[in-house]
Design brief:
400 residues; mainly beta; Jelly Rolls; 2 domains; 9-stranded antiparallel β-sheet; 50% strand
Length: 400
């Protein structure tokens, strides 16, 4: 038997039930600065083996006596937890986890106590499940893992198999983010390759981008440390393209176009890669909105040093880059892939292989999906939907 300590800092999110709320803080230490009764804190756990468990709610600071309403809607569990300043842990009794899949445990402060008392609700540190029979009974983001990547949720990928990988100079892909799955934090990456990635993002409620980045050959997360001979050089750019460097995931050159792309519309992405004199390769990204024009527009061309290559390792992915949005599902379709070699010859795209990132591989998060349906290849992630039958390495083929 073992105890499971489920950290709020890794596994919880908040929602507001009013037009405006005073937002709490969710950090690695847990949930703090929480005083608004319109806020619901939700902690997510995947139940793999059903059973009855003793559950303990642990705080590390209680400013005042408070009462919390705790509920698990999927199993009709409700409990009023009364905290006092002398007790940092509170038994929630024995809970019957009677179905497999994700459960959402909600915490909400009572409004009457806010009016009568001062101070925040108790800090929420962890939920402990005691004397669990099996190590495989529950899945959640363990605090030995990154809370950033855990709360962002798993990234899912489609890795394209071509008839030939010899000197692929151009690759074209079409991406559609479906209307009901259009969320802030989405990056629907159309064309990834050995040295960079190209796709579209939802950066905020008011801004969207078409983004193209190329990594430097120097391995560092700090762009200021990149030596001049390893710097990715801008060759050309579109008239409205913004140019930056980037770090924290390797370093390199970043280019993006602020563009109001619309969910439900299909957009075309074209990437070109070709060796250039002086031990460089030039990578150029083009974008087309067929509702506006039949012409591709240049995002940017980057010249990568110490590189003589065409396009290798071509793939797509779907990720959420906003940790606070990891509790919301997103979905995108990928269609009409086309590869062209250095002689201008079409190269068949045969299939797509499904893979995912470390968050999913270590089973911290199981809310991922991918496949093919009547609308094409698709990827879906986040939102704590129940695990599908898709497996790492599954191969999908479009009916053409």
């Amino acid at each position: 038997m073992t105890d499971f300590a489920i950290s709020f800092g890794w596994n919880s999110y908040y929602t507001c039930t009013a037009p405006k709320c005073t937002n709490p803080k969710i950090q690695e230490q847990g949930v703090s600065n929480w005083k608004d009764s319109n806020i619901i804190i939700s902690l997510f756990i995947y139940v793999a083996i059903v059973g009855i468990q003793d559950v303990l709610l642990i705080s590390d600071e209680i400013q005042r006596e408070a009462e919390l309403q705790i509920s698990i809607p999927s199993i009709q569990y409700n409990y009023f937890a009364k905290f006092n300043t002398d007790n940092l842990s509170l038994s929630l009794g024995s809970i019957n986890f009677n179905t497999t899949g994700y459960v959402q445990v909600n915490f909400r402060g009572t409004e009457s106590l806010i009016n009568r008392k001062t101070g925040n609700y108790p800090k929420l540190k962890q939920l402990t499940l005691s004397k669990v029979q099996s190590q495989n009974s529950f899945y959640f983001v363990n605090d030995s893992f990154s809370s950033l990547f855990g709360r962002r949720g798993p990234s899912a990928h489609l890795r394209y198999k071509l008839e030939s990988n010899d000197k692929i100079q151009k690759f074209i892909n079409e991406v559609t983010v479906t209307q009901s799955w259009d969320q802030v934090g989405t990056y629907a990456m159309a064309i990834g390759f050995e040295f960079g990635y190209f796709g579209m993002q939802v950066n905020s409620e008011t801004e969207r981008r078409i983004i193209f980045s190329v990594w430097s050959p120097q391995s560092t997360d700090d762009p200021s440390q990149v030596l001049p001979e390893n710097t990715v050089i801008l060759e050309s750019k579109g008239s409205s393209t913004v140019i930056n460097s980037f770090g924290n995931e390797g370093s390199g050159g970043q280019s993006y176009l602020v563009y109001p792309w619309v969910a439900g519309i299909s957009y075309q992405f074209k990437l070109e890669g070709q060796p250039a004199p002086g031990n460089f390769t030039i990578f150029s990204a083009y974008f087309k909105d067929s509702t506006k024009s039949d012409e591709y527009v240049l995002i940017a061309s980057w010249k990568r040093p110490k590189t003589q290559a065409y396009l290798n390792g071509i793939y797509s992915f779907l990720e959420n880059f906003k940790p606070e949005k990891g509790n919301i599902s997103r979905k995108a379709y990928y269609n009409n892939q086309k590869a062209i070699d250095y002689q201008g010859k079409d190269v068949k795209v045969l299939s797509a292989t499904f893979t995912y990132d470390e968050t999913a591989r270590k089973q911290y998060r199981l809310d991922y999906d991918g496949g093919v349906d009547i609308n094409g290849y698709y990827l879906k992630n986040c939102g704590f939907f129940n695990k599908t039958s898709v497996q790492y390495g599954d191969v999908f083929t479009l009916n053409k």
